[in-house]
Amino acid sequence: MAWQHLPRKKHSDKDALFSLLSAEFELEVNVSEACSSCYGGGGHCELEQNEEFQCDIAKKATSSVGIGVLMITIYCFWRKFSLNKIINFWKKETLTHQDVEAFLRNHGPLVIRRYSYADIKTMTKSFNDKLGQGGYGSVYKGKLRDGCFVAVKVLKESKGNGEEFVNEVASISKTSHVNIVTLKGFCIEGSKRALIYELMPNGSLEKFIYKGNPSNSNHQLGWETLYKISIGIARGLEYLHRGCNTQILHFDIKPHNILLDENFCPKISDFGLAKICPREKSFISMVSARGTIGYIAPEVFCRNFGGVSHKADVYSYGMTVLEMVGGRKNFDASVDFTSEIYFPHWIYKRLELGKELGLLGLLEEVDQESARKMIIVSLWCIQSDPLNRPSMSRVVDMLEGSLEPLKIPPKPFLCSPPSSPTDSSTIMV
């Protein structure tokens, strides 16, 4: 098979949907005439060890993992929702200022302080020191009256949607854990909204793990630090799922939302997509999908994979740790060899064949053991069937335990397990 990049072109409606889901690349598969005939007869064309193709009629054809992820995603989306529905989602009615104020009144006394917009301007010295910017707005360095430094996230006024603001305040105000970022206050004054967090000097995890990122050129994280970070994130999620008074599902675990303090202790942040639900409830109902493509669990956007539960965060965690291990995005079409495009598939094959991991900096035996544990645990976390993924409590146990009893999981191909009869609510993206 030959893989080649295609130039971008004008899209039809269906092409526009494809572009929405795979904005960074387009792929085309070319097969030989013999293989084409094989597929036409319902067979499966396989490359044998002697590098010759053989037609296997007994098996159903499967695409590569990368294309499989995209095609199944597109199929589920296109079958359930028209392009107009997807566009309408982004135009849905937003929460009004009165809605947010009503929530804050009905939520009862909050342990975090409410500040005025004048207070926000004072603590940031009129927004003098900008730390970062994103689609949500901008983050500024600030200082409270007690001398404590903070990061102030000022949400865009034009965004106008109070739902993520409400999610953030409601969920994070219920938490207190070393691996969860502390929300010190908030501001809502007319259309102006801001969130005040403890300042995390080292910023987000993504700055330190991707090769070629200019920001990590002077501080490449060692394997011992990466291993400790993976355990810290797992403990934070374990707390959200089992340690709070109520269960909190984050729905947006990714390197960008993991902040690092001065000692590189990880803290989970950005609860804008979080959902609070009773702990005794096995599956939750959702009216819209939430998450980031590349980390979002398959059952969140396609119910054929099962009901939505805390296992969605487990999947996102597994994808995050695999990016920490690989030092790259899990799906990278710019690599030299097609076999390396989808990192989980590539690293699984090396484990399966007993090869060296081929990762940078694995010089010490203890680092090799830590890396193997992170890989094996992550591959369990990204199983397509949520029932096959471990809980976060089990993840912590596996990471902190011995490598010897850990078994290599099934290959992390996307497949369609039986749909769950427990929760049949519609998911819309």
From TrEMBL:
Its main location: membrane. Belongs to the protein kinase superfamily. Keywords: ATP-binding, Glycoprotein, Kinase, Membrane, Nucleotide-binding, Serine/threonine-protein kinase, Signal, Transferase, Transmembrane, Transmembrane helix. One of its GO terms (cellular component) is membrane. This is Protein kinase domain-containing protein. The keyword Glycoprotein applies. InterPro entries: Kinase-like_dom_sf, LRK10/LRL21-25-like, Prot_kinase_dom, Protein_kinase_ATP_BS, Ser/Thr_kinase_AS. One of its GO terms (molecular function) is protein serine/threonine kinase activity. It is a single-pass type I membrane protein. It is found in: Membrane. Gene3D superfamilies: Phosphorylase Kinase, domain 1, Transferase(Phosphotransferase) domain 1. It comes from the Eukaryota. It holds the Pfam family Pkinase. The lineage of its organism: Eukaryota, Viridiplantae, Streptophyta, Embryophyta, Tracheophyta. Residues 125-414 form the Protein kinase domain. ATP binds at residue 153.
